[in-house]
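Why does residue order matter? Because the sequence determines the fold. Keep that principle in mind as you read this record.
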Amino acid sequence: MVPVHAIATLPPAQERNAPLIMENADKFEGYRSRGEYVLSGKVRFRHGDLHVETERAVWQKDRNIIFCESSMRITRGGSVLTADRGTYDKNLGQATAQGNVFMRDSSGDVTATGQSIVYLRFRHLATLTGNPEVRRFYTAKDSAASPSAKDSAAAPKPKDPKAIAKAPAKAPVKADTSGSNGPDTLSIKGDIMTYDDSSQVAIADGNVRIHRDKLNITCKKAEYHDPTDSLYLLGEPQVVVDDNQVKGEIMRMGMHGEEIKSLLVKGSAQAHSVEPATDTSVARQSDVHGDSLFLAFKQKAIDSVQVFKNANGAYFDVDKPDFVNKMSGDYMVLRFNGKQVASANVLGGAKSTYYHFEKKLLKGKNDAQGDTIDFAFKNGKVDEVMVKGMAKGTYFGEKPNKAGAGKGPDSLAVKSPAADSLKTAPKPDVKAVPPAGKPVPAKPRSGPMRPNIPWRVK
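Structure:
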């Protein structure tokens, strides 16, 4: 993937060639060398539509370079850059800054902080080092009660009390992301951070950590695209959302305002989920893996999981780790109701194994295979299984006699030709399952049998 900033176009020639003009200085302190002026007070320079302000400057007039020795503030349009000190080179269109660096983009919704920055004006590209962090503010959640991102993301004052790089008059409030009254915030940290102000793309390299509400991400490299509100994750990415954990080689997370909408995982994709225990149910664990995963979210919870190619799934009660229910096939989709699995469908070489318990007692085990297997769940447990196409099922359990006594181990198997179906329920007294004609799969959904892996998510 080519970073957007690598192909950024240059501004018009007249913008580059505009003169560097000193607009104000309270005091002229003299010369340090030929062509080098020392200025103090409210020093202001202008280069086209870019403004540089400082409390003390050394101006190398012949070289068009400003050294800001006591605070620095650069503004251009709605963008702001402040620091304890720095330089601006008019010929290169380059600003460098050190100490308590703060940058806010023209939209006011994205800020960046660090200890050092290099800003290439003509490419609209900033590179931060020294514990850099980029934040994206969302204000739709409580816009009436909380300050806007522009107000909340105010530039901090440098330590020098005379510094002019102070927060705007309307921005005395620091963003508060710890409570419900503060704006929802996406935080991205890494060893090195670059931000393209024109395309609004932030790239983090090395030891990347991303946090937002219940979302926590770690990886080696991340790209955040603000216009599409999307995250691209590379280098052993791991995503944790509430009680769900996802791993893979490459990920794309699509968001919309305050909500996570989707997560696409490519390469060695894995998803792990824990359903907490309640007053009426025990804790359950689910694991799926395959070549690729696509997770859809609804109201900050997983709504469905699609597994593409070499799909495998397992689920079990946490207090019964030796009895793992399994399913596998070419393609798999699981749908959730709250945090419980509501239905599952496995397509292409489908196989399943599940255990039946009654009042915590093991009653039997069902094995099934066919072209397609549909599962219906009730209260987080398998309620019905339908196998279609070259269907075969085997039940291992207790064999009741006519008098209802003398039970012993038994196994039952049913085979049927292609296009036949068998329908089973997890009951210990099942002897044989006759063909069911054309039964209706559990909670079917229309659409292609094996959908293509999506990449772009709106």
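The chain has two domains: 11-196, 249-424.
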